[in-house]
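Notes continue from the previous slide.

Worked example: a multi-chain complex. Inputs as given:
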Amino acid sequence: MVNASAGPGGCPAVSVDVGRSGPILSHFEEWDGLREQYPAFWSELYGGHWVITRFEAIRHALQEPSTFSNESTIVSDPNPEYKFIPTFLDPPEHGKYRTLYNARFSPGMVNRITPAARAAANKYIDAFIDDGGCEFMTAFADPFPTDVFLNSINLPPEDTPLFVGWVHAVFGGLSGADPEAGVRAQMEMRDYFKEINVDILTYFLSATVDDKAIPEDDILNMAVVLVLAGLDTTKSQLGYNFHYLATHPDDRERLVKDPSLLPTAIEELLRYHAFVPPARKLKHDIEYEGCPMQAGQMVLMPLWSATRDPRAFDDAGDVKLDREPNRHIAFGAGPHRCAGAHLARRELLVAMEEWHQRIPEYHLDAAQPITEHGWQCGPDNLPLVWP
Amino acid sequence: MRIAVSAELCSGQGRCYSVSPDLFTSDDEGFVVQRGSEFEVPAGLEDQARLAVASCPEGAIRVVDDS
């Protein structure tokens, strides 16, 4: 519900809950309205925080860590006790860790793991193709990215179910649904990484920051962040992509007939469904988008509000699979731009290539309502059927 | 035509070397090799240059001289 009243400095105060559940796409559609009404507003939810809605202001904020700090990125918790590395770091400290990730998840690495990704996609499709349908989120969107990701950091793909469970628990914890389960899952992940002797940990263990080894505790944190960042996200994007194609047969047929359109189409589907809502903590007072924001306050900046902004994209509300140029910020902007973007794009491309070669025609099992969760939004379910 | 790639703004989004592969290349970290440099666009690649300018989400590429 949108109830505008007077907030700090005369700026509007609007109660809109980015954490709520609802029908699929409802968050994006709600914010299409909010953005046009308000360039910025105050929300009393989650302890009170600012919100900015438009492309230029959001991009600029993400490019300005000296004002909009990553000290906390959790809107409800400006002073978190746990330490997400490198998420909670600002430059110059941030760059020292970030360079490790860039090198490890480079375009070159992504090329090397592509054959394994293709095999994984087909493995999961094999399991349900003859059933004439599947619950896409559990049958494909959850396990496929997990499998590819684990393989890319040389963890055994057989442990996919373990990671799927942990990620669910941690995100359930972060959203407040079951904090204890979330903490337990984080500890179990750390124990897992302690026991296992693998490439990614060897990589971090042999790395130095300021010529010093990284403390083991930090390495375990880094491994946990990697898992959290890499899995839930690609899963949600796959869900939105297949939801769109299941409900837009003309566009689906276009992609089946001309798979060379897939890379451009993937960018457009990223733009249309940019489901991550980053938050930043203000390092100093600033008048921004007409609002008197104060040091220590949190600012929420949903990327979907930026990527669907008609000021930045012609016909922003329309999906145009051949849209070019497409300078969306679905992977964020600035120093914390998603380190997994190259891997994510390849996973999406491989998944969509392999799927449409084998199951070119499919639609929604319309009997069931399709819902999405909030925060890092994503479809809860996606029942597909095919001839 | 001269273009420049800002070292400060380039975050390695990778759009430039994806949409204009004849003009831009990725380094080992996913940044564009031409990051922090200004250079003359080879004849015939002006359209790729313009596409890259328009495709960079950070706005890191700009046309310095369009003659």
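Summary box: The first strand of chain A starts at residue 4 and ends at 6. Residues 4-385 of chain A form a domain with the Cytochrome p450 fold (CATH 1.10.630.10).
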